[in-house]
Fold:
Amino acid sequence: MTRQNTFVVITIYSNKSPNFWPQSRQHKPKQFLDLLGTGKSLVQLTYERSRGICPDENIYFLVPREHEQLLRDQIPHINDHQVLKEPVRRNSAPSLAYASYKIKQRYPDAVLVVTPADHGIFGDIAYVRDVRKAVEFASNNRENLITLGIKPHCPETSYGYIQYLNEGSSEFKKVKTFTKRPQEDLAKLFLESGDFAWNTKISVWHVDAITQALQKYTPDVHETFWDGKAHYFTEGEEAFVVQAFTHCKNVSITNNIIEKADNMLMLLGEFGWTDLNSWDLLYDSKEKQEHDNVIEGPHVYVQDTQNCFIKGPQEKLIVVRGLQDYLVIDTEDALLIYPRLHEENIRSLTSTIKEKKKDKYL
Structure:
C-alpha cells in the first residue's frame, strides 16, 4: 500500500459537554488547546503524527463550520479541499459519509485512517508503525473494518471497551462486543478476563468497506452523500453539503455501524494512549511533582497540598494551602476550585451558569 493512497481524516466534533471548563469554551473547544504542555494544541499534535502516515495533502479535517477559522489559524497551510465543514450538527455518520464519498470519488482505492483530534498519544513512532500495519491489512482485506485497541492497565470507567476473540495467529482479532463506560465492578472483570481492550475510536478501512457498511446499515445517509459525487472537488460542493446535512437525521456511526457490523476486526496497539475527556484523566497522564501535585504556571506556590491539579496563567500569582484532591484552574475571566474526584458534577455547575444567563463564561 502506497502513502499516496492512504488518507487520514481527523475528526473535530463539537463538544457540548464541559470538558476542561473553564479553559475550554464553546468558542475554543479542547481540540485547539495545549492541554499536554507541549506548546502545541491537540489538533496540531494529531496533524503532526498523521504526517508520518500519509502525504500532507492527504490529511483531511472534519470540522464544525464555526471552528473553521480556529483550524486555519493553527494549521494555516492546508488547502480548501482538505477542510470538510459541517454546516449543522448531525452526529458522526453523515460527517464520515461526506469524507468517505468525497475521497472515494477521486481516489477509489484509498484506505482511510479516522482519528479523533482530542486524544493523547504517547509514542509517535509506535503509533505510526501500528497504523501503517492496519493500513496494509485493510488494503489487502478490503471487506473488513478495523479498529485499534489498547491493552488496559487499570479498570478505567470513563473509556469504552472492546471484547475480542483471542484465537488464531493473526494480530487482527475478531471483535465480539463493544461496551461504553462500564461501572467499576464490570471494568474490573474486563481487566481480569484478558480479552478486553480500551476502545481508542481510531478506525482504519478501505473506502469500499466503509461505503458498503454505510449502504447496508444507514441507507439514507449513504444515498444522500453518494448522490453528491458529481459535486465533490467542485465549486458546487459547499452548497450540496449544506443541503445534504440539512436533510440528514442525527445518526451515530458507532451505534449504527461499528457496533453492528459483523466484519469488525481489532488490532491491539502498543503505543501510549488516553482519551482526554476530563481534568482527572489529564492529571493521570501528567508527570507528578512533590506530594503528587501537578502544577502548571510560573507563579504557583503550595503548602500542605496533595494530589491536586493547579493551573494558572503566566502573569498571575497563585498560592494554595491545605487542599487535597482538588482542581484549581484559573483563567483570565473564570476560576474553578473543585474536588478532582467529583469532576462529573461540573456539568451541573455549567448548567447553572447558563441558567443565570452568564453564557459569556461558557
Remarks:
- The first strand starts at residue 6 and ends at 11.
- The mean pLDDT is 93.
- The chain has two domains: 3-277, 280-361.
- The first helix runs from residue 42 to 50.
